[in-house]
Design a protein that fits this description.
Among the domains are: 90 residues, Chorismate Mutase Domain, subunit A; 80 residues, 3-Layer(aba) Sandwich (D-Maltodextrin-Binding Protein, domain 2), CATH 3.40.190; 258 residues, TIM Barrel (Alpha-Beta Barrel), CATH 3.20.20.70. It has 21 helices and 25 strands. Strands 18-19-20-21-22-23-24-25 form an eight-stranded parallel barrel, surrounded by seven helices. Strand 1, helix 4 and strand 2 form a beta-alpha-beta unit. Helix 1 crosses helix 3, helix 16 packs parallel to helix 17 and helix 17 crosses helix 18. The structure holds the ligand C=C(O[C@@H]1C=C(C(=O)O)C=C[C@H]1O)C(=O)O. The ligand C=C(O[C@@H]1C=C(C(=O)O)C=C[C@H]1O)C(=O)O binds next to helix 1, helix 2 and helix 3. It is an enzyme of class 5 (isomerase).
């Protein structure tokens, strides 16, 4: 046998490979700039999602042959394509505005090195400029001043955050500025607790933070007792303070990257109220820019309307009449005019386009005040997702409404079909209730992080849209050798992030709902809780889609009444689930009521899915029920999977990975 390579030799080879990878990426960037040039001549848009999809399909297939899983390949290429699109956009933008090119840009931002605005600025300008003169400021008005007076060429300003909403002071300084918005960018914002010397969360008695990050972490901060929160002008100021104090009892809130510049280390991560915390920044300059027509553009307007009924609606109707999509509407009090509001509107479209021009003309006639704050390239490059029927499958596994509405149903005002078109419920890039048949897959019960991750990976590889996993009931998990509720939720959250899958888990008690809804993308009400009114009401107050399982002894009317209870609280995103009912038949555990699918479809507009897990006595009986559910018009299926079904703790029938892959492959032929 050959002598194995030494660690040094292996690492040498890896380093060489990585150098090659970098050279290839750099060449790819060059080529994408050539593509951009050809798009100028052909006046084609930069983004071509048909091409991206075809490319991803080929790469996934090739990746599989090289033992690389689809999710890994897709993730890497989403990053590469995003870079390619933004690099092309930056180049076209520079060509469209040649007078703005300078070797060095002076940029004003809030705080100092390491603040979030600083990180956003570095990222944004990395595509357009080699050198920056950083002009750290202590307030938003100082930042705007720098640009207005010509001391800085650009300003980077945070405008909104997914946890704390619009940054009102920035909206207010925009009211009077003579500057224009010339760009935007979105930055993922991961708040951490950082210290200068080794410490632990329990030792901390003082936290330094800017009030915006503090607001975005309010739930975490509220959960602490006896801790002093010291407010700082920017996260960078908090870092500086903590680095000077060198005290194990003090910590700063900010990003890990920013803290590193001050020698700080994170002792806790993921502090924000929202699991996906993003901030959007705008870039300001003295003069407006032209947006090249190949690039998707956004235009920001500010306006005020007459104080009379319907005047705002009338203004918004102008957008509709001109086919313009409004992606943001904020209102702020007009300074000096008590109780009058100024509306900030972001519209998708180029200011130069004829429909935008004619919309503005129409708006001028019906508004009291109207000003364009700027037109700029939209930096949102939403990833292209390969549709299920085109996703190449793993090689090793796959081989191959009633006429009249029921009177009872029409009595339910919110759920009833009453001519209402099918409700489509969007969960990230999946739509439940459309023509697409979706699969929700995962372990019946979460037994360990490894087990959950293995299931999530297989679910993703085979094209499932949503990950499921039930938390082990604490009353049974008494010796505590299985993950508890909190750990299971955390595992689900991590698996969801890692495999880019939204996830669902069941809630049993009203008290669980708020916390679970904060983390999970959907919530499930189990069959035995279908008539638990308090629980139904509680989930009805959340913003998450709810899968409501039919009770073992519940009629369809009763199921719809339960859905009505949820919807009456405000949450209109209910998905009904047929999971088998109790009959005299003992051969199957419960009897899957396939007739319920078309019946529900005529009674209600809500999506209907099927969980066949409890309606069979042997796993071999599962596949036909899955295909039958699809044939009967269900919108999707729930499948329990497990790496070793024989050892599974779940009480339902569980598929092994090969059996699951086979069903997924067969499903797309049907
Ligand atoms: C490079 C191109 O532009 C964009 C980027 C792509 C890529 O990086 O592969 C693919 C399609 C376009 O959205 C192209 O059109 O080929």
């Amino acid at each position: 046998m050959d002598k194995p390579l030494s660690l040094d030799d292996i690492r040498k080879e890896i380093t060489e490979l990585d150098t090659t990878v970098l050279k290839l990426l750099s060449r790819r960037r060059e080529l994408s700039l050539d593509v951009a040039r050809s798009k100028i001549e052909a006046t084609r848009p930069v983004r071509d999602q048909t091409r991206e999809e075809a490319l991803l399909v080929t790469l996934i297939k090739q990746g599989r042959e090289l033992d690389l899983d689809a999710h890994y390949v897709t993730q890497i290429y989403h990053t590469i394509i995003e870079d390619s699109v933004l690099t092309q956009q930056a180049m076209l933008q520079q060509l469209a505005n040649p007078e703005n090119r300078k070797p060095v840009y002076r940029v004003a931002f809030l705080g100092d090195k390491g603040s979030y605005s600083y990180l956003a600025m570095r990222k944004y300008f990395s595509r357009t400029c080699d050198d920056l003169v950083e002009r750290g400021c202590t307030s938003f008005s100082q930042i705007i001043n720098e640009v207005e007076s010509g001391t800085a060429d650009y300003a980077m300003l945070p405008i909104e955050n997914t946890s704390s909403g619009g940054i009102t002071q920035v909206y207010d300084v925009l009211q009077h500025t003579t500057c224009s918005i010339v760009g935007e960018m979105t930055l993922p914002v991961e708040h951490c607790l950082l210290t200068a010397v080794p410490s632990s969360e329990s030792q901390i008695n003082t936290i330094y933070a800017h009030f915006q990050p503090a607001q975005q972490c309010s739930e975490y901060l509220d959960s602490l007792t006896g801790i002093k929160i010291e407010s700082c002008d920017a996260s960078s100021a908090a870092f500086l303070k903590v680095s000077e104090l060198k005290d194990p009892h003090v910590a700063a809130i900010g990003s890990a990257d920013g803290g590193e510049l001050y020698g700080l280390t994170p002792i806790k991560t993921g502090l924000a109220n929202q699991k996906e915390n993003f901030s959007r920044f705008i870039v300001i300059a003295r003069k407006p820019v032209q947006v090249a027509e190949q690039i998707p553009a956004k235009t920001t307007l500010i306006m005020s309307v007459e104080q009379k009924p319907g005047s705002l609606v009338e203004a918004l109707l102008v957008m509709r009449e001109h086919g313009l999509n409004m992606c943001k509407l904020e209102s702020r009090p007009i300074q000096g005019n008590p109780w009058e509001e100024l509306f900030y509107i972001d519209v998708e479209g180029n200011l130069q386009s004829s429909h935008m021009q004619s919309a503005l003309e129409a708006l001028t006639r019906i508004t009291r005040y109207l000003k364009v704050l700027g037109c700029y390239p939209s930096e949102e490059v939403s990833p292209t997702h390969v549709p299920l029927d085109k996703l190449p499958l793993p090689n090793n596994t796959a081989t191959s409404a009633s006429k009249t509405e029921s009177a009872a149903a029409s009595a339910h005002s919110l759920v009833a079909r009453n001519g209402h078109p099918d409700t489509e419920i969007r969960v990230r890039h999946t739509v439940i209730g459309s023509d697409q048949f979706i699969t929700i897959a995962g372990p019946g019960i979460i037994e360990s992080q490894e087990q959950l991750n293995a299931c999530a990976q297989q679910a993703k590889e085979c094209g499932a849209a949503i990950l499921r996993g039930a938390l082990y009931p604490p009353q049974i998990n008494q010796d505590g050798n299985l993950p508890n509720e909190q750990q299971s939720l955390q595992y689900l959250r991590e698996a969801g992030l890692r495999f880019d899958l939204p996830f669902i888990t069941e809630v049993h008690h009203p008290e669980q709902v708020t916390e679970t809804a904060r983390q999970a993308d959907l919530l499930q009400i189990g069959a035995r809780n279908m008539q638990n009114i308090e629980l139904l009401q509680e989930v009805g107050r959340t913003h998450r889609p709810i899968i409501l399982k039919r009770g073992l002894m519940a009629s369809l009317d009763e199921l719809l009444q339960a859905a009505e209870v949820i919807m009456a609280q405000g949450n209109r995103q209910v998905i009904l689930c047929e999971r088998g009912i109790r009959t005299f038949e003992g051969a199957s555990r419960q009897t899957l009521d396939l007739g319920a699918i078309p019946a529900l479809k005529s009674m209600t507009h809500l999506p209907v899915i099927v969980d066949p897990t409890h309606a069979i006595s042997h796993i071999n009986q599962l596949a036909p029920l899955v295909y039958a559910a699809k044939a009967a018009g269900a919108n999707g299926i729930i499948l329990d999977i497990h790496p070793q079904p024989a050892a599974a703790l779940s009480d339902g029938e569980t598929l092994d990975f090969d059996g699951f892959a086979e069903i997924m492959s067969e499903l797309r032929q049907r």
